[in-house]
Every structure is written in structure tokens, then in C-alpha cells.
């Protein structure tokens, strides 16, 4: 059967692939530690589960408007006002089947063949694939430790052409955990305004920032920047709700309207009980969000320290999200592998630790390790990797 051209070049998600491989080995009875996952290991807070259960019992099991329940949109509007001082109308919002689908609808609605989207690397694996699926061209800008993996105004200027349609900013970032400051965002925003480039601000890890630092959305810096930005967010990471599939986009009314039409012709609406759960997530107590964050921060400190004891590993300490993204080129070399991909493969097959090679994130000298797992497991994983490297040196 001849398949569509657009699907032939689509790369499957590297992070989901490594998790599948680790599970396959586990199925064979091998004690594999999986650090590939991109989801909190905590269960969804009880009051959120209860709200979904109540909704089901009350018969809230039917279709909703394609863009999501008005009540949920209002809860999201309250959240934006409280957290960022941003004011939106329901017509500026679409609720989607996870943040990933908000991005999908956005690119399908925005991009014409040949339009360029600037993606700072390392990037979340999904961005370039979704841009390509929409007929767009991902334009990568490499970043490294010297700028804490952040895009600088100079680098941004260098890649802008008359085909540039959008820039993706992901703060806190998957995979590096870096966060942009107000001043850094302001400088990038000014350039985007000047060239009329839409800013796609993926803020899904907003609630996972450690220390005293506060999350800043580029949209809160000025009215002009708010008009020029589409914020992508959701409850998956903040409220340990990855499986409920609720995300959203906030932005220009005309754009959101067309994204909603596309949703109406593809998914109809996000699952109704999940929408009620998301209302409870935003309107209920945020204590569990804070508690989960503290746990993540403790794990980060522990795991970072352990990883830094491994020969050939170097890593800038992240400020947010739940990943470490060390440069392990030296460790690969020390252990006799000519690429980090091969080193990562050996970590899985020999040390039985599943990590995601940086190639999928556009940075082949690195690996991504998720610390969304218990402290005991993290200590064991670090010990296995250290032992593997030291034995092979
Ligand atoms: N954006 C980033 C940067 C992510 O890491 C993820 C999930 O891994 C998403 C968006 C998608 O989130 P959701 O599960 O709500 O689709």
C-alpha cells in the first residue's frame, strides 16, 4: 500500500520509543531502570479524581463544545489572571487533548508550505515533526552550555528570513530544564515584534521551577507581546495528569477560532470527564502541586550530585522541569563508543538504565535523564551508570 508522503518522513517520538524498549526488556524479566519517561510518577491528586468521578455519576458523559467547556475556560482565565496577570476572554482559548494537540492544531492552522519556524536546539522532539507535517520548515538554532542552552538575540537575528512565521520558546525547557528571564524574553520579543514573528510559548513546565525563581511568560511583558504570542499549557505536568489529556492554547481570537474548527472536524472535543477534572485541578487546592514540586527539587539536587561524580559527565544544573541533560561525549569516548547514541544503547543493554539519546532533541552529544522517579531508583541508576563507565574505562 502506498502511504501519504507526509507520513513517510515522520519520525516516531524518541522518548516514547525508549520507554517502549525499556518495557520490552522488563517484560523479559530484566531489571531495567527507565529514565526515559516524560511524566510525573505521582498519582493525580485525589480531589481531581473525585471531581471526574462525580461528573461521570451526574451524567456529564456527553459531547462538549469543540473548544472546551465554558466553565473550564473560565477556570483557565482565572489561572492566567492569578499567575501572570494576563487577561483573556473565552474566545482567546481552546481546550485540547493535551498540550501536544494544541501545538498540532496551531501549526496546522498557521503554516503554509515553505513557512519557516525557528526552533532553538535542544528542542522537544515533537516540534519539528509537527512543523513538517504542516508543510513548514523547521529552522534550528544550536545552543549550548555557554548560554545555558538559551537562544540569544544575535542568534535569532541570524536565522530570520522573509519566510519566518514563528519562533518556539519553551521555558522551562524540555530537555534542558533552563528558564528564560524577563530581560532575555524581552530582548527576543522585541525582535519578533519588529519582524512580525508569532511567538509560540510552550509553558507546560511552568509550575516546576526550583528555588526562588518565578515563571515569566513572554505574553505578560506587554500588550503587543501578548497579541503576538500563543501560550501553550495544560495540566499534564503541573497536576500529574498526563493520561487525562487536557491542554490548551491562548492567543489571537481569529487564530483560536480556526483551530477550534479544525478540532471540531478531527477530535470533536477533549474527553468530557477530563475537562471536569481539569476544572477541579485549577479551582481546587494547589497544595499537591507545591508538594510535588518540592519532591522534584529534592530529587534534582540528589541526582545532579550523583551524576556529576561519573567520569566524562558534565551538566549545567537545570532550574526547572524534571530532566537532566548532561553532555556525555567524553564518557562515550572514555568507554570506547564513537557516538553518544551507541553509548546510550549500551547503557540500556549492559547497565540496564534507559535514557534518551540527545539526537532526538537535536543535540547528539547529550543524553536526557528524567528524575520523575523515586530517590532510591535515582541513586541506583546513578550507581549503575558510574559502575558501567568506570569498568569500561
Ligand atoms: N510540551 C513539552 C515541552 C512537553 O515536554 C510535553 C510533554 O512531554 C508537552 C508539551 C505535551 O504535553 P501533553 O501531555 O499535555 O500533551
TrEMBL record:
<dbReference type="GO" id="GO:0030170">
    <property type="term" value="F:pyridoxal phosphate binding"/>
</dbReference>
<dbReference type="InterPro" id="IPR050596">
    <property type="entry name" value="AspAT/PAT-like"/>
</dbReference>
<dbReference type="GO" id="GO:0006520">
    <property type="term" value="P:amino acid metabolic process"/>
</dbReference>
<keyword id="KW-0032">Aminotransferase</keyword>
<feature type="domain" description="Aminotransferase class I/classII large">
    <location>
        <begin position="31"/>
        <end position="385"/>
    </location>
</feature>
<dbReference type="InterPro" id="IPR015422">
    <property type="entry name" value="PyrdxlP-dep_Trfase_small"/>
</dbReference>
<dbReference type="InterPro" id="IPR004839">
    <property type="entry name" value="Aminotransferase_I/II_large"/>
</dbReference>
<comment type="similarity">
    <text>Belongs to the class-I pyridoxal-phosphate-dependent aminotransferase family.</text>
</comment>
<dbReference type="Pfam" id="PF00155">
    <property type="entry name" value="Aminotran_1_2"/>
</dbReference>
<keyword id="KW-0663">Pyridoxal phosphate</keyword>
<dbReference type="InterPro" id="IPR015424">
    <property type="entry name" value="PyrdxlP-dep_Trfase"/>
</dbReference>
<dbReference type="InterPro" id="IPR015421">
    <property type="entry name" value="PyrdxlP-dep_Trfase_major"/>
</dbReference>
<keyword id="KW-0808">Transferase</keyword>
<dbReference type="GO" id="GO:0008483">
    <property type="term" value="F:transaminase activity"/>
</dbReference>
<protein>
    <recommendedName>
        <fullName>Aminotransferase</fullName>
        <ecNumber>2.6.1.-</ecNumber>
    </recommendedName>
</protein>
<dbReference type="InterPro" id="IPR004838">
    <property type="entry name" value="NHTrfase_class1_PyrdxlP-BS"/>
</dbReference>
